[in-house]
Design brief:
Layout: H1 2-18, H2 20-31, E1 32-37, E2 44-45, E3 51-63, H3 71-82, H4 86-93, E4 100-101, H5 111-120, E5 125-134, H6 142-145, E6 147-148, E7 154-156, H7 157-161, H8 163-166, E8 171-176, E9 190-192, E10 199-202, H9 206-223, E11 227-233, E12 240-246, H10 259-262, H11 266-269, H12 279-288, E13 298-301, E14 304-307, E15 310-313, E16 321-324, H13 325-330, H14 334-355, H15 382-389, H16 398-409, E17 413-416, E18 420-424, E19 431-434, E20 438-442, H17 446-462, E21 476-486, E22 489-503, E23 510-517, H18 526-529, H19 531-544, E24 565-567, E25 585-589, E26 594-599, E27 605-607, E28 611-617
Helix pairs in contact: 3-4, 9-19, 12-14, 12-17, 14-15
Length: 619
């Protein structure tokens, strides 16, 4: 008996002093219950600090089955409020687990449902804090931002690409119960705070994106195209200023959206023949090789060129006649570009297409980018060489085209496009990652690039891009009208109409590209349909970006369809009786006899039939 008592005492002592920590940990683990607390994801901002993606605090339902006394009644009540099947809910509340999360039916529930559940005071049923991803601008930038799933994991767009950074660390409420689900007051509850994920600042500028969204919505409603897209980039860095696709969707309600819409960010996913906008690439390449002087050398456009037995026609019946090569670009002469392609030759043309990055993905920091389609070198023969020269037979994405044109006008430098400017700690604002412009290569010389800018400005003043001309701003650009290829063959009707604009052309700050697929009830030319949309966007965007008007610019060539404009004189300081003009009328505002202000300002242009607003007052 003595030996037995000694053995028991020794065992107790060993348990108390040697195994204490191990046994205590096992005990608390068996007693501990945890209510999870969802961490907020990091917010997403534009470059001006505008919140594009936010979080809302909401509630989720958790049950502790061992604490539920009347499981049938509890299941019935919860099923009615959460709008789910009774048997399904009964199975949940009967599970042999310490804590059961009701999802998806009990995740991120509305305030109304949360109030009803809280009012019932059901034993074993708890409401815990949760977060709901919120897109305050709804369809705005939808395909680019993407959305998250029920567990706040990124599924599409930036939410997917940067999920690791945006995801926070969940917290919990830890409490202790015995086997009968009674609270153990000996151990106080422990609150582990959730940690918010990192925040992201984009290169997207809402001053640009707002206008692009507005005008694309208007165009989509007006022309009913199959789709319309826009992309704006800073040509000096590769930073994306705006990106837009229509049709779009509301990320707050992605469950009811078409997956073909939210999985396709058109400016970087849609691959098609660029048409005449590609002529900028061919023209730049030939200039860089010194194959012609664009103002001295000429080409006679008789209306067609014969290549490998195929007849390649001009869009103008009978052709454009004798032209300088600047006019070949202005008139978008396909036979003229066949000649430029011949002069470049197979190797040069193919190598420049590769050098401008048109045979590979750009590497933008977004998921779902396409790479485009180009003939294999061995299949790049005489006919293919001719058609590629004017933008047919090659398939590229808008992003590839915009990046290549940026290299044509920024001094010849090809940059990697990017959309995330910086990633930083949501609490301390410490920058974790900051993107720097990444130069890939120089494709053409700065001298050639200056010539290209000059040529593109003349396209807007004297060529097919006149509908994008803006008084006070020097704009360059090129229109495009491309056939639609469906399943490898050209569609019988409908075109992809496009325009790419650069502003200001002497010192580019923005490149804007717009493409509309198969618009209805309109003239199927990029210059007549899409260029005016680009003009509307640039009219608002350029002042918003702080780009000032100039007093001298190349005059727009006037044709009979153009509205005449007149330069406004200075009337400030004159009396009302002295305000006169034979070219335009006036609208007087206010009281008094002295002109204190006017719109438009002195030196600005006013269209025929419009009136100058005169503000009267007393000095």
């Amino acid at each position: 008996m003595g030996l037995l008592i000694i053995a028991i005492v020794l065992r107790l002592g060993y348990s108390q002093f040697i195994q204490y920590e191990e046994l205590s940990l096992k005990a608390t683990e068996s007693w501990q219950r945890s209510f999870p607390l969802e961490a907020s994801r990091g917010k997403i901002y534009d470059s001006q600090g505008v919140v594009l993606v936010d979080n809302l605090t909401t509630s989720s339902v958790i049950v502790v089955p061992s604490q539920i006394k009347d499981k049938e009644n509890t299941a019935q009540q919860l099923a009615a409020i959460l709008e789910c099947d009774y048997d399904y809910m009964l199975q949940k509340v009967n599970k042999h687990v310490s804590v059961q999360r009701l999802q998806p039916e009990g995740r991120q529930i509305s305030d109304e449902k949360a109030y009803k559940i809280d009012k019932l005071k059901l034993p074993g049923v708890y409401l815990v804090q949760d977060t709901l991803r919120y897109y305050p601008h709804k369809n705005y930038l939808a395909q680019t931002l993407g959305f998250v799933g029920i567990d706040n994991q990124g599924l599409v767009g930036l939410e997917l690409k940067y999920d690791t950074y945006l995801t926070g660390e969940n917290g919990s409420i830890n409490y202790y119960m015995n086997a009968k689900s009674q609270n153990l007051n000996l151990y106080p509850a422990d609150y582990v705070y959730p940690t918010t994920g990192m925040s992201i600042e984009l290169t997207i500028d809402t001053r640009v994106q707002d206008v692009v969204e507005r005008e694309l919505n208007n165009a989509y409603d007006t022309y009913n195209p199959d789709s319309i897209l826009a992309l704006a980039m800073n040509p000096k860095t590769g930073a994306i200023l705006a990106m837009c696709s229509k049709p779009d969707f509301d990320p707050n309600d992605y469950q009811n959206a078409d997956s073909e819409i939210y999985n396709r960010n058109l400016p970087m996913w849609k691959s098609y023949e660029p048409g005449s906008t590609f002529k900028i690439i061919t023209f730049s390449s030939a200039l860089n090789e010194g194959l012609f002087d664009m103002d001295k050398d000429t080409y006679y456009d008789k209306g067609y060129e014969i290549v490998g037995g195929a007849r390649i026609k001009s869009w103008k019946k009978g052709g454009h006649g004798l032209q300088t090569f600047r006019e070949v670009l202005q008139n978008s002469s396909n036979p003229g570009f066949v000649e430029i392609g011949r002069r470049l030759g197979k190797d040069n043309l193919y190598n420049y297409v590769k050098a401008f990055g048109l045979t590979e993905k750009t590497g933008i920091d977004l998921p779902g980018e396409s790479s485009g389609i180009m003939f294999a070198y061995e299949n790049f023969n005489e006919v293919e060489q001719a058609t590629v020269a004017f933008g047919q037979g090659i398939s590229i994405t808008p992003l590839q085209l915009v990046r290549a044109v940026a290299a044509c006008v920024n001094g010849g430098y090809l940059y990697k496009p990017y959309i995330v400017n910086k990633i930083y700690n949501s609490y301390t604002n410490e920058i974790i990652v900051e993107t720097e412009p990444e130069l890939i290569r120089q494709v053409i010389t700065e001298e050639t690039s200056a010539q290209v800018r000059d040529a593109l400005e003349s396209v807007v003043t004297d060529g097919g891009g006149k509908n994008a001309y803006i008084e006070g701003y020097r704009i360059g650009g090129k229109t495009g009208t491309a056939q639609r290829a469906i399943n490898g063959t050209y569609a019988g009707n409908g075109y992809i109409l496009s325009f790419i604009g650069v502003a200001p052309i002497d010192d580019p700050e923005i490149i804007l590209y717009i493409a509309m697929d198969n618009p209805k009830n309109t003239i199927q030319y990029g210059g007549t349909t899409v260029a005016p949309i680009a003009r509307k966007i640039l009219v608002d965007v350029l002042p918003a970006l702080g780009i000032k008007k100039v007093t001298e610019q190349r005059e727009k060539a006037w044709v009979w369809t153009d509205v005449k404009t007149f330069t406004v004189q200075n009337y400030v300081g004159l009396s009302k009786d002295q305000v006169k003009s034979e070219e335009y009328g006036f609208e007087f505002l206010g009281e008094g006899n002295i002109v204190v202000d006017q719109l438009p300002r002195v030196g600005e242009k006013i269209a025929e039939g419009e009136k100058v607003k005169i503000q009267l007052g007393e000095q």
